[in-house]
Recover the amino acids of this structure.
């Protein structure tokens, strides 16, 4: 089995949960290797990130270059092509950055590209049988790929849970010298932060959605707290918009927006046809409703018969606890 | 500006229910209705708007067969200048890289300033645009949600986490993959399609494109789908019966397991 | 008269009355002809519109709506005022003509409409009209009814215009009365007799002291003033809202006779040649038909249409009358009487906005109200056709239109699942529904349409209707997967090509099923199959079927269990107004023992739309309130706690509105079929004893 690397994105020295997840995925592919993390950047931010990564990876390759201060996929790709050994297996998180980097990387490394891997069925000496989801999660598919020339693998965030007892103390290897100069025909300019009014619910993978059960405008903050803890957005059903508790841009439904999230929390939503019509694909649907007979329970995966005004704050604190545990 | 938009005909999830067929290995295809992949449609609209602002032409191309012509025709009805079908027996069952190779060969016969693809198809891997760019050695940006033309460069913003936008400057010629919501695509109705019914669609095959069977088609595919399946899951919601605290715990874990902590 | 004239001739050696009046007549008529000719030009350049058929029926329409002022009393005070003024005008017409002709041809006398009795009547008429003018002016200037108000950009001119015209008519009456007061009688040297306490009579009293010689100039002056005012009005009216005085006869004669229909894309081009038409719909002014332009001229800006319009009430950017007035102003501006024509401008984006055009629910309240029978729905549909032709469609409508094209329903659901509503476990046992697929046949087709087929809440209406049909012994079936959306809203939203495809598909399926009649519980489907489709078996709504069963004692009801319920029946626009089924549903409700029913103020042909059906459910309007919320409040005001309606879209909108209005728990909505299904007890024909068909509790 070829050497496995995990490319980790750091921003201002911070890494996210996917680092531990990729380490876990690497182990699933080849338990005999200690996975190597590769991280780019410059200055103290990079140092900070390397330090955090040591807990998950036996070896951390530090690639420092001024031009890499902001993770520009075009430049990162050049760096990786120069520094990674031939036929490497590179794991990247399937997110906005991974989508930008990985396909082109696979061409330059001349190896296959596996996109949005959800689970691994089987790994043999030269090949891997894995699972992807297609059609918005309505079906899964088994794929097989030959690994002899290496591979670039985008891993779905959350598909692998970090093993809690795998704390390591890895070494940091500075690979910056072999880099040379970097130049690309795409240059980072700036990041424009979304105003809270600008939330586009169709772009969120996780939605905390509220219906009439929220009862009044002031209670919307309960949902917002949960959304914040999850890194999600708050959406709603039509009656909430009609009552002017939330803006029209948050409405999910046949006369609102169509969303394709991965996780959908339907809180105090009865499950009316017009609302469900706005949810495409098959997200993991968690329904919270006081009424055990609410139609939403027919279509949800998990149901909680409870008052959302009581349940959501409890859930928020549990999520925060969980986050705290993972970040360690 | 000469713009190429690579499009694809897919079964739209909003108009189909994807189920397994009676054999249980593939999806049931008899009753699927097909249309243009939604992000590709946004890409074509964006190309048309750029063309109407700065001049030039818009070409739409797809890799496929006769059935895929309907999608090309729809985009002609929308306003594209030219449509090209890249079709050959040897192209069948190409993987993403194979498709990108075919497109690359087409691009190399012509001169395009800007190449657009949709960011992803429902049964796709968000890969063709990035691969095509790397094969052509052109700069690439994915998840583009706004484009501004500034002479020989573009100012594009990419959609990143939390609804934020990452603004980049990119040199022409380049490849961009377009995210939905970048614009409001114009309507195309049955009448519009009828009006372009007799516009010719050029078809190019393996010989015109100089592809070889090592790089396209079944034999060249490195990532191969074995089957479709539905993972086991229960009917209706599983109602959690614990205490509020226990339920909250369980839910938090389940969300995390699905990649819900972002 | 002769004496007066000779008295004038001797008294004034200036221009003789005869020549002066003759000149005024000639000049006035020439001017009027010129103005009318110019005003006719846009009509001659517009699209064709076949309105010359069925002359007898058209004359009947004139009799009822023009002569009979049938629509006017719907607004009592203004209506009374107008009817009076109109009657006065008709009466005075002959007198006016006399006053114009007699100075020139002194022997002239109007046949029948002259002589003493006529004189007395017209004396009073002139008085009444004068008083009405005063009231009208005061009403406009002091009381300013809300209906007449217009947004700032139309502003003051409108009121000024109105007041000038009202005042001019008043002056005309004064002039007329002056002449009457100073005219000598036929046979004697004395003044002609006048009606006591009429305006001429009052003038006579004032002029008591004057001699015949002194009266002569006043008579002369009155005649001239009369002629001048008459021709002033005649030539001024075509420049404003009073043009309706001339055009109303024509706008009513040529009005639309076929309720519920929508005009074809082009009257002069048959359907199968539509591919040759380069541009669909109305984009520029001349794309309207001549009748539509006549409508623009005929609008009296009374505001009754906007007053009834649900979109306007909800704060959407649409007011029917402004649609007309803006077009009329456009016509006056771009086809001016005194300068060059200038045409070809896009209307949407200049005088109209897109939202304005999409806001209309096609409920028809405006058309029902207009005293001049001005048409609106066809114009809106034509404007929408133009927008669609230019690919200018709101994103929220594109998805359902696309789904209708691929799947035959706006939800994008699978065709094969269209009949799944019949498969609900208990229902399937109790009421198996036949699918008419060629092998299976039936007498009657139950046309379900998309909402009742796919929307889980509305499927209950389907099941209830099926049980009703079964209970009355109807041999019925449904088309199942081969049924597509009726296309009713598709057409009214301007997608004619898609509509024709749906229509042709359904027509073939229905004819292939070989049924003798069709029943539906969806008024939009009813209207489509009845008016938009051709050559189908007769079609009825379930309310009509049940009403007949009740009349013929094929159906009886058990008493209502809940004594607290107070029902208000909401007339769906496409069952009520467009198809005039008002009494059948009410008769059925009243046949349910113990059912308390109240009427909302706005009911029957004045029913207030629920917000719209079909594609309107997908459109995101700009509005201040939901239309449905306004309606639900009307029900509450009438004292009802249960709204019963006979349309799935009304039910959807009203159920949503109840929640939004915060009336959940205080008000419910139920469909007619659900209620009937719940309460019905069938007496099986030819049996001695009653057979009770228990329904499963409350149905679904």
């Amino acid at each position: 089995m070829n050497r496995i690397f995990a490319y980790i994105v750091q921003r201002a020295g911070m890494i996210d949960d996917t680092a531990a997840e990729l380490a876990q995925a690497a182990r699933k592919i080849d338990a005999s290797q200690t996975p190597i993390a590769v991280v780019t950047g410059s200055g103290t931010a990079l140092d900070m990130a390397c330090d955090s990564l040591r807990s998950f990876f036996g070896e951390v390759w530090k690639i420092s270059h001024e031009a890499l201060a902001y993770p520009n996929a075009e430049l990162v790709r050049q760096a990786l092509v120069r520094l990674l050994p031939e036929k490497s297996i590179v794991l990247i998180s399937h997110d906005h950055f991974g989508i930008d980097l990985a396909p082109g990387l696979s061409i330059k490394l001349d190896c296959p590209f596996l996109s949005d891997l959800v689970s691994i069925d089987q790994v043999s000496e030269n090949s891997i049988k894995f699972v992807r989801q297609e059609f918005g999660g309505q079906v899964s598919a088994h794929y097989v790929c030959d690994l002899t020339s290496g591979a670039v693998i985008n891993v779905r965030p959350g598909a692998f849970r970090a093993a809690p007892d795998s704390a390591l103390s890895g070494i940091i290897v500075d690979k910056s010298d072999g880099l040379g100069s970097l130049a690309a025909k795409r240059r980072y300019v700036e990041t424009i932060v979304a105003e809270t009014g600008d939330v586009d619910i169709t772009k969120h993978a996780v939605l905390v959605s509220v219906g009439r059960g929220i009862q009044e405008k002031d209670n919307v903050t309960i949902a917002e707290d949960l959304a914040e803890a999850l890194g999600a957005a708050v959406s709603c059903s039509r009656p909430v918009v009609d009552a002017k508790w939330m803006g029209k841009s948050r409405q999910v439904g046949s006369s609102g927006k169509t969303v394709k999230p991965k996780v959908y929390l339907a809180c105090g939503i009865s499950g009316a046809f017009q609302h469900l019509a706005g949810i495409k694909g098959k997200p993991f649907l968690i329904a919270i409703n006081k009424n055990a007979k609410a139609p939403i329970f027919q279509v949800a995966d998990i149901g909680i018969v409870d008052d959302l005004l009581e349940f959501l704050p409890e859930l928020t604190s549990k999520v925060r606890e969980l986050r705290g545990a993972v970040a360690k | 500006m000469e713009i190429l938009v690579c499009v694809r005909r897919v079964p739209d999830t909003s108009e189909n229910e994807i189920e397994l067929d009676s054999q249980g290995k593939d999806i049931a295809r008899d009753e699927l209705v097909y249309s243009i992949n939604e992000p590709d449609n946004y890409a074509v609209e964006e190309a048309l708007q750029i063309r109407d602002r700065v001049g030039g032409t818009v070409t739409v191309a797809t890799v496929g067969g006769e059935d895929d012509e309907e999608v090309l025709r729809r985009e002609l009805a929308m306003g594209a200048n030219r449509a090209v079908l890249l079709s050959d027996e040897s192209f069948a069952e190409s993987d993403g890289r194979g498709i990108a190779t075919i497109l690359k060969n087409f691009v190399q016969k012509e001169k395009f300033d800007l190449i657009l693809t949709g960011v992803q198809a429902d049964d796709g891997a968000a890969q063709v645009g990035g691969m095509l760019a790397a094969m052509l050695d052109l700069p690439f940006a994915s998840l583009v949600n706004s484009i501004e033309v500034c002479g020989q460069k573009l100012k594009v913003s990419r959609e990143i986490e939390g609804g934020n936008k990452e603004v980049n400057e990119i040199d022409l010629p380049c490849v961009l993959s377009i995210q939905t919501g970048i614009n409001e695509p114009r309507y195309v109705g049955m009448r519009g399609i009828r009006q372009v019914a007799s516009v010719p669609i050029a078809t190019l095959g393996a010989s015109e494109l100089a592809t070889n069977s090592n790089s396209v088609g079944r034999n060249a595919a490195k990532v191969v789908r074995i089957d479709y399946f539905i993972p086991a899951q229960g009917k209706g919601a599983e109602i959690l019966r614990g205490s509020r605290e226990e339920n909250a715990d369980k839910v938090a874990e389940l969300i995390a397991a699905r990649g819900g902590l972002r | 008269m002769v004496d007066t004239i000779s008295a004038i001739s001797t008294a004034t050696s200036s221009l003789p009355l005869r020549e002066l009046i003759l000149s005024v007549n000639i000049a006035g008529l020439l001017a009027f002809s010129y103005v009318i000719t110019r005003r006719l030009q846009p009509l001659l350049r517009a699209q064709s519109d076949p309105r010359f058929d069925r002359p007898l029926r058209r004359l009947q329409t004139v009799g009822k709506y023009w002569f009979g002022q049938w629509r006017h009393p719907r607004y009592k005070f203004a209506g009374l005022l107008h009817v009076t003024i109109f009657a006065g005008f008709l009466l005075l017409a002959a007198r006016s003509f006399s006053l114009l002709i007699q100075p020139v041809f002194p022997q002239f006398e109007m046949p029948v409409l002259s002589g003493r009795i006529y004189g007395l009547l017209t004396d009073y008429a002139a008085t009444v009209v004068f008083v009405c003018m005063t009231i009208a002016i005061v009403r406009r200037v002091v009381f300013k009814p809300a209906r007449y108000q217009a947004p700032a950009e139309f502003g003051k001119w409108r009121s000024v215009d109105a007041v000038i015209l009202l005042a001019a008519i008043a002056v005309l009456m004064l002039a007329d009365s002056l002449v009457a007061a100073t005219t000598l009688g036929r046979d004697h040297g004395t003044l002609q007799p006048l009606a006591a306490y009429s305006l001429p009579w009052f003038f006579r009293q004032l002029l008591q002291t004057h001699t015949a010689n002194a009266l002569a100039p006043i008579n002369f002056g009155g005649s001239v003033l009369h002629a001048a005012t008459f021709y002033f009005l005649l030539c001024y009216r075509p420049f404003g809202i009073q043009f309706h005085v001339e055009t109303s006869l024509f706008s009513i004669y040529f009005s639309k006779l076929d309720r519920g229909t929508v005009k074809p894309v082009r009257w002069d081009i048959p359907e199968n040649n539509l591919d040759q038409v380069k541009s669909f719909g109305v984009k520029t002014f001349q794309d309207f038909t001549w009748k539509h332009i006549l409508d623009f001229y005929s609008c009296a800006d009374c505001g009754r249409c906007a007053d009834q319009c649900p979109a306007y009430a909800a704060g959407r950017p649409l007011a029917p009358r402004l649609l007309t007035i803006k077009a009329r102003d456009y016509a006056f501006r771009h086809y001016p009487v005194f300068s060059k024509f200038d045409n070809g401008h896009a209307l949407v984006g200049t005088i109209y906005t897109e939202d304005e055009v999409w806001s209309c629910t096609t409920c028809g309240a405006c058309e029902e109200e207009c005293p001049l029978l001005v048409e609106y729905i066809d114009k809106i549909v034509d404007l929408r056709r133009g927008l669609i032709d230019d690919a200018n469609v709101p994103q929220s409508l594109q998805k359902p239109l696309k789904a209708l094209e691929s799947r035959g329903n706006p939800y994008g659901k699978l065709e094969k699942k269209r009949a799944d509503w019949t498969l609900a476990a208990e229902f399937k046992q109790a009421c198996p529904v036949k699918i008419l697929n060629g092998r299976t046949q039936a007498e009657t087709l139950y046309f379900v349409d998309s909402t009742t087929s796919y929307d889980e809440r509305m499927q209950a209406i389907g099941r209830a209707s099926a049980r009703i049909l079964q209970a009355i012994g109807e041999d019925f079936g449904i088309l199942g997967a081969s049924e597509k959306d009726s296309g009713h809203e598709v057409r009214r939203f301007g997608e004619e090509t898609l509509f024709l495809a749906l229509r042709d598909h359904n027509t073939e399926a229905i004819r292939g099923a070989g049924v003798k009649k069709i029943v539906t519980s969806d008024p939009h489907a009813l209207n489509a199959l009845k008016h938009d489709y051709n050559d189908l078996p007769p079609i009825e709504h379930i309310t009509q079927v049940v009403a007949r069963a009740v009349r013929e004692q094929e159906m009886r009801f058990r008493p209502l269990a809940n004594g607290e319920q107070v029902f208000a029946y909401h007339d769906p626009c496409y069952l009520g107004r467009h198809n005039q089924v008002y009494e059948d549903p009410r008769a059925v409700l009243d046949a349910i023992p113990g059912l308390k029913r109240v009427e909302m103020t706005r009911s029957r042909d004045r029913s207030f739309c629920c917000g719209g059906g079909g594609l309107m459910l997908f459109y995101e309007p700009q509005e201040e309130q939901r239309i449905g919320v306004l309606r639900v409040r009307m029900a509450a005001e009438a004292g009802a706690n249960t709204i019963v309606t006979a349309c799935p879209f009304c039910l959807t909108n009203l159920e949503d509105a109840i929640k939004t209005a915060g009336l959940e728990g205080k008000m419910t909505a139920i469909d007619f079929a659900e209620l009937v299904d719940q309460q019905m007890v069938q007496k099986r024909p030819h049996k001695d004893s009653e057979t009770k068909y228990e329904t499963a509790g409350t149905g679904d």
